[in-house]
Design a protein that fits this description.
Length: 133
């Protein structure tokens, strides 16, 4: 018998044209805008930065859970996510995401096992290309 899925949390974000902000879960707006490299003002956060932040925080929270469950000290751990926007022509855009993981208290196979478990826990880690080692 398959386990029953249980909803744990729902977040919502709303972007309104012309406001220069995105409202997240009913809180006051987070300033957003296109990066200067793409012709925008460079003021506020752009989608690539928000996506990188989501990947980094999700994977880091999962890393802490996986480390704790396997007896590895997560102190000093760090995840850095990078998101690159690419244009394939004809308004076909894509994100390419990578992540670097620092887990100072584990090395070798033990470190690899913790990272593999974190990748299974984080629901958006499948977007990483390639997964961190």
């Amino acid at each position: 018998m398959a386990p029953t899925q249980q909803d744990l949390y729902t977040a919502q974000a709303r972007s309104l044209h012309g406001t220069g902000r995105v409202d997240i879960s009913g809180r006051a707006g987070l300033p957003v805008g296109a990066p200067g490299e793409l012709g925008g003002s460079g003021h506020g956060y752009d989608p690539e930065q928000l996506y990188a932040a989501a990947l980094a925080t999700c994977l880091h929270q999962a890393l802490v859970i996986a480390a704790t469950e396997t007896g590895v000290d997560p102190s000093g751990s760090e995840v850095t996510a990078r998101v690159r926007l690419s244009n394939g022509g004809a308004q076909h855009y894509r994100f390419d995401a990578t992540a670097d993981v620092s887990l100072p208290s584990a090395e070798g196979e033990r470190r690899s096992r913790v990272i593999e478990q974190a990748l299974r826990i984080c629901p958006i880690s499948d977007q990483l290309d390639p997964p961190p080692a």
